[in-house]
Q: What sequence folds into this?
């Protein structure tokens, strides 16, 4: 991990129409960190990811990526700069092959020239996708579909990946495998912000975490320290 800041989010307010979903949210992520966003349903985790990736523009505050403002850019420009969001719900193209699903991840300008290199990375990380490349995506298991959406995200040649609820509904052994791959992704120089329902697991897998409640960041710090925090133990571990 480097000490250099990759992403700097400062004082964001985000609204859906008249309803405020994020209040004065700030976070900072360094190169090659793994950072978790933790919080109950509706606390604003997905909204924060959507604001970073440009799907929603904040009413107030700023987002800098590699020292440049991306606050008012469109999502396709943000992908081009190297931020790839993998939304929850495993949105594959069911009637396309695994290969074609992956190719669809590589259409941004930055990724086109690196397609072969990124295919190699995806197939090394997920050998099963190589084995199944000619199969229709809908014939994959849930875990394999999650690997496919992660692979598609990697095909856009990201420096930062935003992962929303990748382990939802998957078997423990598959979840373990996905987290192993996250660490491998980081060791290839890609920074990761992830959202995970399981707070204990988030704090085991991340270097640092931010805890959201009703659109506010209420706690943040090293994941290992947060695991020992009384407030966290009471609110999330039932201790
Ligand atoms: P979950 O774990 O359920 O995905 P979350 O922490 O990701 O929850 P968000 O989905 O970001 O939370 O929701 C934050 C708040 O914004 C909630 O009060 C939610 O009802 C509201 N919200 C989210 N999406 C919309 C929308 N499209 N229109 C209006 N309000 C929304």
A:
């Amino acid at each position: 991990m480097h000490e250099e800041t990759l992403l700097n989010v400062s004082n964001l307010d985000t609204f859906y129409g008249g309803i405020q979903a994020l209040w004065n949210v700030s976070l900072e992520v360094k190169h090659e960190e793994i950072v978790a966003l933790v919080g109950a349903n509706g606390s604003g985790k997905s909204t924060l990811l959507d604001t970073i990736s440009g799907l929603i523009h904040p009413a107030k505050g700023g987002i800098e990526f590699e020292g440049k403002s991306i606050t008012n850019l469109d999502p396709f420009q943000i992908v081009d700069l190297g931020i790839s969001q993998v939304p929850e719900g495993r949105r594959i193209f069911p009637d396309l092959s695994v290969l074609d699903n992956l190719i669809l991840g590589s259409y941004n300008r930055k990724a086109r020239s690196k397609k072969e290199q990124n295919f190699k990375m995806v197939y090394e990380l997920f050998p099963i996708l190589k084995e199944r490349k000619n199969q229709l995506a809908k014939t994959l298991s849930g875990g394999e579909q999650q690997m496919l959406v992660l692979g598609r995200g990697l095909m856009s040649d990201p420096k930062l990946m935003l992962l929303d609820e990748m382990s939802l509904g998957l078997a423990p052994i598959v979840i373990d495998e996905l987290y192993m791959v996250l660490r491998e992704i980081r060791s290839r120089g890609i920074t990761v912000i992830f959202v995970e329902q399981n707070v204990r697991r988030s704090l085991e897998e991340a270097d640092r975490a931010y805890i959201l409640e009703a659109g506010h960041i209420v706690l943040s710090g090293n994941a290992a320290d947060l695991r020992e925090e009384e407030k966290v133990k009471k609110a999330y571990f039932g201790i």
Summary: The beta strands are 5-16, 19-30, 34-39, 60-65, 68-69, 83-86, 160-164, 191-195, 208-213, 216-222. The pocket of adenosine-5'-triphosphate is lined by residues 16, 19, 21, 39, 41-47 (CB under 6 Å). The two ends are 32 Å apart (CA to CA).
